[in-house]
Amino acid sequence: MFTDPATDIFSLDRVQFDLSTRLICACVSNNILVLALENNHILRIDLQQATAIDNVELPRKSNELRIHRLFTDPTGRHIIIGTEQGENYYLYQAWQKPKLLSRLKNTVIESVAWNKGGGKSSRPSTLAILLGTQDGRILETEIEPTEEFFRREEKYLKLLYTIPEPAPIAGLHYESFPATPRKYFVLAATASRIYQFVGSMADTSGDGGSMFESLFRPYANQPVFQEIPGDISHTELCLFSKLQDVAYQSVAEKFAWLTGSGVYHGQLVYGSQGTGDSVVSDPVLLPYPRDHPTSGTSVEGPEAPISMALTEFHIILLYRHSVKAVCLLNDEVVYEETINMASGYGERALGLSVDSTHNTYWVFTPSSVFELIIHNEDRDVWKIYLQKRMYDTAFQHAKNPAEKNHILGAQADHYYTQGRYVLSATYYAQTTRNFEEVTLKFAGQNDQEALKCYLSKKLEHLKANNITQITLLSTWLIEIYLNQLNQFDARLRSQPSGDSPERANLEAEKQSSRQDLDSLLRTYKRNLDRRTTYALLRSHGRHDVLLDYAALLGDYEQVIAHWITERQYEQAIDVLSRHGSPSLFYKYTPTLLRWCPEDMVQVLMRQSDLAPRQLIPAFLKYQETRGQIDQPNQVIRYLTFIIHKQHNRDPVLHNYLLSVYATQATRCETALLEFLANEGQGMHYDVDYALRLCRKNQRIQSCVHLYSMMGQYEDAVDLALAHQDLELAQINADKPEDRPDLRKRLWLKIARHVVEKTHDV
């Protein structure tokens, strides 16, 4: 919700303090309140210890000397007491008696420009300060407290400048340029003129000479001033700085000058100005607010205030019986309160003092002290900037989410009414404005780009736990991007062939849209529903995007399946070889082995984490669909590799390889015999199974070999003779060398077979 408007920004509170006699003037600095009484007593009060009051009396009686003005530095340590008779006194923080400033005799001081470096200095000195006098002179001095009786507090006194038309210099300030060492400007104000002096100060550290003399010298005959005529009995000059710490005070940012026609105020700019240039920027004359006449009275013109103060956003005007605050942003009176005067003394306000160090404001009457409390001064500033459509500045001054939301919504509405839909979308997305309302706005304008912008920004602002919203918005955005890509393709197809700037621009826009889509998929890949996204991409024919998305998810099964569907088997094998898991190999080897057997086996041979036994179904399918007989059998290639190179001892694989050899269409048994021979006595296949398989497939030589290996030489010879292979029978008859009786019997069988078949003895 908005900041509570019920709390007043300004309020005037009376300080509970009884004065023994009439108050003449006062000032406050660094929580030190200094009061000058009619009886020439000075009350010095530490506001943090209000019960401890220093009562200091001037050396001369009130019938001889009348106090005119009080001045205290930003630290509250140094007090200058000026009198109407031109005698001036100095009171240091630890003193109970003031000392006469003899060099300043017969000088009525109207203003003091204090040195901001006093708070950082280890010396008790004021450092170099400027004094503005009643007769229009600007003096420079430095005051340093001393306990030595014959030593003066003023280390020196130098006349720097006399204004051309002598008048009281009621306002005097100086500031340093932040980026240029020893470069300063001075502002001096009379009732009708404000003077500016810009230049460099001399380095007089340690020699006691004037620091400002070189700055004022060029203006001796060429003064630079702004004149505003008017009838006013009293003028003031105020400067405002955001940071006013005792040890460090930032440079002033703005000024205000009380004139007969109104308050002349503006910004202070520190740049490359030189002698004769102005530091004032965007000055404005603010007329004094008019009073509302009561019944039977008339108001000829606005009353001029007797004092003022400058804050960050307001000018405070003190009148004889009331206080007003005018907002600098819209010139409206935002506060007015009548001062509750005490009876007697012919009560009216005396003045207004600002403690810039602690940012407090004080009003004085002859009998009372009031504190003007400023609470949350910038509370309504955002509203004023919003009315001026200065949205960014308004946002900077918003205090809470409700105010910020209001500003962003107003800014979005403003851009929408201007037809700047994409820009309005960026701001709608940052508000809590109803989602359906905003999307219908852009849908009604048929502006897909604005809708896309709104959804994208809304998506960015969602928290991670808003899973459903993230899924819905990101899916909707994908649909928009896909439609845009289709539109780009359609526009490109309608373009004439060849290179043209328009075609190049379309290509660039399409590429940018594709990159944005890729970024969206990459960012929200874990939030998107996989099946929905795949279906969406397929329905738009964006298989390239689908493949990239699947790769982002690590869903390489989807990629492989796509390439197989497209009959791009080499691509499928490439993906499988780089990203395939054992389960993917087992699933897709049957298909890929059929269409690209050599490449697939080459990939299989590089895999060390496969269980070859799991590939047997794929090998069986390959054997069923194998093409030309004269092509190398890739299953034999793979099994031979894992058996002989990787030394696989799995009997199932050995048996299967044996079956492949045995069932080949060729009648040649060389490969099968080599396999059996290589296995030797440490065979890992089932011999009985092998024998049955060989006999079934008429692999006679292999059967004879198996009988021989089993020691069944008689069966081996019988089988060889039965198939008229005399040589093979003779070879096997010689094998039982350690059994001469068996060898003799085998050779007799061979002889009998020869006689019976050839009748040759």
TrEMBL record:
Residues 500-514 have a biased composition (Basic and acidic residues). GO terms for biological process: endosome organization; intracellular protein transport; organelle fusion; vacuole organization; vesicle docking involved in exocytosis. InterPro entries: Clathrin_H-chain/VPS_repeat (IPR000547), Pep3/Vps18_beta-prop (IPR007810). GO terms for molecular function: protein-macromolecule adaptor activity; zinc ion binding. Residues 9-374 form the Pep3/Vps18 beta-propeller domain. The keyword Plastid does not apply. GO terms for cellular component: endosome; HOPS complex. CHCR repeats lie at residues 607-761. Transmembrane segments: none annotated. Keywords: Metal-binding, Zinc, Zinc-finger. Residues 493-514 are annotated as: Disordered. Coiled coil: none annotated. PANTHER family: VACUOLAR PROTEIN SORTING-ASSOCIATED PROTEIN (PTHR23323), VACUOLAR PROTEIN SORTING-ASSOCIATED PROTEIN 18 HOMOLOG (PTHR23323:SF26). This is Pep3/Vps18/deep orange family-domain-containing protein.
